[in-house]
Automatic annotation (TrEMBL):
GO terms for biological process: IRE1-mediated unfolded protein response; protein refolding; response to heat. Pfam families: HSP20. Residues 15-120 form the SHSP domain. Belongs to the small heat shock protein (HSP20) family. One of its GO terms (cellular component) is nucleus. PANTHER family: HEAT SHOCK PROTEIN HSP-12.2-RELATED, HEAT SHOCK PROTEIN HSP-16.41-RELATED. This is SHSP domain-containing protein. GO terms for molecular function: unfolded protein binding. It comes from the Eukaryota. Transmembrane segments: none annotated.
Length: 123
């Protein structure tokens, strides 16, 4: 068989390492969208939880590992306040093969528009 099989990012991670980054990466806040990226490469997707309460976006990860020598539990929790013009009903998330969690919310479109005035002549 030629070519290599791409394993999920968490298969390659050193789960015994305590030196992992759960810091918030790139944040984009422009006229079109708000997005944030978080490195969650030491957590499996099923270990992650994203909740939206109003404009408060909460990202959590919890991992428990048991071995013959003991027990390890690591977790993180991040709270981000979404901008007032973010479309909360359209928030989406995706995770890359490298373990980068991307959460994105489009901005609400400007809903003001001109209404034409039609002249109706009475007969």
């Amino acid at each position: 068989m030629t070519g290599s099989v791409q394993l999920p990012y968490w298969r390659d991670a050193d789960h015994n390492s305590f030196n992992f980054s759960d810091t918030i990466g790139e944040i984009v806040n422009n006229d079109n969208k708000f997005s944030v990226q978080v490195d969650v490469s030491h957590f499996k997707p099923e270990d992650l939880k994203i909740q939206l309460d109003g404009r408060e976006l909460k990202i959590e990860g919890t991992q428990e590992t048991k071995s013959d020598h003991g027990y390890t539990k690591r977790s993180f929790s991040k709270m981000i306040l979404l901008p007032e013009d973010a479309d909360l009903s359209a928030v989406q998330s995706a995770i890359s093969n490298e373990g980068k969690l991307q959460i994105e919310a489009p901005k609400k479109t400007n809903t003001s528009r001109s209404i034409p005035i039609n002249f109706v002549a009475k007969h």
